[in-house]
Specification:
This protein is an all-alpha fold. Helices cover 80% and strands 3% of the residues. The protein has one domain: Arp2/3 complex 21 kDa subunit ARPC3, CATH 1.10.1760.20. A hairpin with an 8-residue loop joins strand 1 and strand 2.
């Protein structure tokens, strides 16, 4: 009994570790969007976390999000006093946890789609609120720049951006919606192929 339990634990830890390292490595691939300021770039590191959350449970996705950010912090360092990594962890965790929690109830294609839509909406709302009330003001103080400088970065690419509120509404919010859609669209076919391996 103990030997079987140890085997299960070792398999779980191995799968979680591999997915976490993959997520960390994928963080280096960043894609800018035409309507968003340069400090907003899509990375696809939530994909391994989503796959892990779907296959091994919602909390596994949170663990993968944590490990990838700890690895990034330890190996790459930070230019945001750790706040950027904390924000990435919180927003990513809410996305994968929400999606996987809904998927877990039905474990069907329909529940996966509903979960991913819900996860995208939760991520988008939390990111909008966090940026407006905390992240943008924090980065403004951290870098010694007026908050309007972030607005100007957005205004160069997006004519609808004129102040902080419009930056959040017309740049940050659609950015996270597009991010959620892209990650979801890639995760669904990938999960179908990888899940048999993770369930062994």
């Amino acid at each position: 009994m103990l030997a079987t339990q140890r085997k299960v634990n070792v398999r779980y830890l191995t799968k979680t570790s591999v997915l976490s390292v993959l997520a960390f490595l994928i963080m280096f691939i960043e894609v800018p969007l035409w309507f968003a300021p340069p400090f907003l770039k899509i990375d696809f590191s939530d994909i391994p976390a989503l796959i892990g959350a779907f296959a091994l449970g919602p909390m596994t996705g949170v663990v993968i999000e944590l490990i990838k950010n700890v690895l990034n912090l330890a190996l790459e360092g930070t230019t945001t006093a750790g706040v950027g990594e904390l924000a990435n962890f919180i927003v990513g965790s809410l996305f994968v946890f929400t999606a996987a929690s809904i998927y877990e109830k039905g474990k069907s294609f329909k529940s996966a789609i509903i979960g991913l839509i819900a996860g995208t909406l939760v991520m988008t709302v939390v990111a909008a609120v966090a940026n407006y009330f905390f992240l943008l003001p924090f980065y403004s103080k951290l870098y010694g720049l007026p908050i309007d400088s972030f607005v100007e970065m957005g205004a160069v690419l997006n004519k609808y951006v004129v102040d902080v509120k419009s930056l959040v509404i017309f740049a940050i919010t659609p950015f996270n919606i597009v991010k959620g859609i892209l990650i979801s669209a890639i995760t669904i076919p990938l999960y179908k192929r990888i899940s048999p391996i993770l369930h062994k």
